[in-house]
Structure formats: structure tokens, C-alpha cells
């Protein structure tokens, strides 16, 4: 297979043990003027421990430089690769896709880069890369891989619950009108990553029990009797993760639900104590 599948570190594939072949272009995180490399010099558990001890911290993220991405692509070319298929986080949430496109133009005479915007984030984003890797390993063409990924793009979503919208508001990931609706103190909010790759506010409640029940209703309405797969995403609260897991197992008769922590580059924007589900319709 002379095509390399690459994802961005926001795909959370660092925390998926079966990933052996997909490289990650890593986001940078700045905490108190100290720079970390997402998933490399700063892992999820360490990051959320920092947030727990310093709840007023506002970590910042940044893309690798165009020069760094170009250097990486040239390295792949020197290893003999002719093509690189790169899945990225939604353009609505990050500049990763545009950075890949800019680097693509610089190296186009040396190696072919195929950027693909997944319109999502976290392990849902990672799933696109895993599916691309699976199909390419079976000999699928680029056109057929893109066709399959386009189907996934139209048939997946993320619902997630946050205790506070502060990080999303401060980092511009939520529009101003929705921000005003969610600023009430103590309100827990359900958000959705929609088909356009945007984060939108769905519901808000005062208690964990009510917000999780509403989350289950959203899943039921979205799946509408169709077969589906889902995974749990979370930031730094294993108790909340397990509470959701037990509810999902009971409501949907599911076993061995995959739970993948959100990488620090994502957690920097949503904060601690987040839990949710990524859903793919079959």
C-alpha cells in the first residue's frame, strides 16, 4: 500500500490501542506560557489532573507551523510514499484542514496530499482515519474511500454534556447568541456537533440526572430504530463516564462500549467534566 493515512491529534487515536499505522499531526497546547505537544509531551490524564487542580486555567492551542507540516510530508516522500490521505477535525472548529491545504501546495511536486475534512472531532474524527486505513489496506481506490467517508459524514453526530460553557465561549467555538443562553450559573448543557461540523446548543438542565436522561432521548431520536454504533467520549471524570456507560448499557442493551478520553487539544476548549457519545448510523 503506497498511500499513507494520517490524522490530526484531535482524533484521539493516541488512546485507541488498535491504532498501529496511522500517524498524527500534533496540535500544540500552551499552559502558563509553557508549550506542550498534544498526546506526546502531554497526555489526557495528566492534562485533566492539571485542570482539576487549577480550574481557572485557560489553556490555548495552536497548529503546527506550515514548515513543520511540510517537513513531515517531505519525510514521508523520502520514505517512498507517493500519496498521503489526511483526515482532519472540522474546519468549523480548527484551522488544521487549512494548514494541511497550504502545506499541500508547497509539496505537490514531490508527493500528493489528499486532505479530508471529517466535519467532526474526537474519536469520531479518528474513526474516519481508521476506516480509510481499513479500505486502503484492502486495495480500495481513493474515490471509493472518499465515497465511504462521505456516507459516514452524513450519518454521524456527537452529543455531549458540559458543566460550563466558559472554555467554549472564551475560545470562540460557540456563537454569541448560544453563549448567552448557556451562561446561567450551574446549568449543565447538551451540545451537538452537527452535520456541518459546528457545535450547537441543544438543551440545558440543572441536574446531572435530567441532563443524562435528555441525552438518552437525543440518542433515541437520532437513531430512530436504525442500527448504529456508538462510543463514549469524556474529559477527566471517570465516575461520570461510568454513570453514562451504565445508562447506555441498560437503555440500548449494549456491551463493551468503547470509551475514549478526549485529547488535551480538545479538552482545552471544552473543559473538564465533559461526557458524551459519538454515534455512527449503519
CA-atom Rg in angstroms: 19 Å
Question: What is the CATH topology classification name of the largest domain?
Answer: Hypothetical Protein Tm841, Chain: A,domain 3
* Model regions low in confidence, pLDDT < 50 over at least 5 residues: 176-185
Percent helix: 40-55%
Write down the secondary-structure element order: EEEEHEHEHEHHEHHEEHEHEHE
Distance separating the two termini:
27 Å
Instruction: Label the CATH architecture of the largest domain.
Output: 2-Layer Sandwich
Question: What is the count of helical runs?
Answer: 10
Largest sheet: 6 strands, mixed
How are the SSEs ordered, and which strands pair?
Layout: E1 3-8, E2 23-25, E3 28-31, E4 34-37, H1 44-53, E5 60-62, H2 66-78, E6 83-88, H3 96-107, E7 112-117, H4 122-137, H5 142-154, E8 156-162, H6 166-170, H7 176-181, E9 188-193, E10 199-205, H8 208-223, E11 228-235, H9 238-252, E12 259-261, H10 264-270, E13 274-281
Parallel strand pairs: 1-2, 1-6, 6-7, 11-12
Antiparallel strand pairs: 3-4, 3-5, 8-9, 8-13, 9-10, 11-13
Give a written overview of the molecule.
This protein is an alpha/beta fold and 282 residues long. The chain has two domains: 3-27 and 63-154, 3-Layer(aba) Sandwich (Rossmann fold); 156-281, Hypothetical Protein Tm841, Chain: A,domain 3. The chain has ten helices and 13 strands. The strands form three sheets. A six-stranded mixed sheet has the order 10-9-8-13-11-12, sandwiched between helices. It has a four-stranded parallel sheet with strand order 2-1-6-7, with helices on both faces. A hairpin with a 5-residue loop joins strand 9 (188-193) and strand 10 (199-205). Helix 4 runs antiparallel to helix 5. The longest helix is centred in the middle third of the chain and has 16 residues, at 122-137. The two termini are 27 Å apart. The model is unreliable at 176-185 (pLDDT under 50).
Amino acid at each position: 500500500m503506497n498511500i499513507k493515512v494520517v490524522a490530526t491529534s484531535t482524533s484521539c487515536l493516541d488512546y485507541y490501542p488498535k491504532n498501529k499505522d496511522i500517524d498524527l499531526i500534533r496540535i500544540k497546547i500552551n499552559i502558563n506560557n509553557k508549550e506542550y505537544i498534544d498526546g506526546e509531551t502531554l497526555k489526557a490524564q495528566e492534562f485533566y489532573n492539571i485542570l482539576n487542580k487549577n480550574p481557572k486555567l485557560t489553556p490555548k492551542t495552536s497548529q503546527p507551523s506550515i514548515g513543520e507540516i511540510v517537513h513531515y510530508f517531505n519525510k514521508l516522500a523520502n520514505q517512498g510514499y507517493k500519496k498521503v490521505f489526511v483526515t482532519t477535525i472540522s474546519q468549523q472548529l480548527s484551522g488544521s484542514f487549512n494548514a494541511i491545504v497550504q502545506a499541500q501546495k508547497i509539496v505537490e511536486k514531490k508527493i500528493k496530499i489528499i486532505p479530508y475534512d471529517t466535519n467532526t472531532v474526537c474519536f469520531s474524527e479518528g474513526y474516519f482515519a481508521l476506516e480509510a486505513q481499513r479500505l486502503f489496506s484492502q486495495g480500495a481506490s481513493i474515490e471509493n474511500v472518499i465515497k465511504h467517508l462521505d456516507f459516514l459524514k452524513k450519518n454521524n453526530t456527537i452529543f455531549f454534556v458540559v458543566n460550563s460553557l466558559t472554555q467554549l465561549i472564551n475560545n470562540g467555538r460557540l456563537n454569541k447568541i448560544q453563549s448567552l443562553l448557556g451562561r446561567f450559573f450551574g446549568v449543565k448543557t447538551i451540545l451537538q456537533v452537527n452535520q456541518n461540523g459546528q457545535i450547537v446548543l441543544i438543551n440545558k438542565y440543572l441536574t446531572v440526572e435530567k441532563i443524562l436522561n435528555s441525552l438518552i432521548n437525543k440518542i433515541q431520536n437520532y437513531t430512530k430504530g436504525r442500527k448504529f454504533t456508538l462510543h463514549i467520549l469524556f474529559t477527566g471524570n471517570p465516575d461520570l463516564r461510568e454513570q453514562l456507560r451504565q445508562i447506555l448499557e441498560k437503555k440500548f442493551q449494549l456491551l463493551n462500549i468503547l470509551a475514549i478520553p478526549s485529547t488535551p487539544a480538545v479538552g482545552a476548549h471544552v473543559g473538564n467534566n465533559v461526557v458524551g457519545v459519538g454515534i455512527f448510523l449503519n
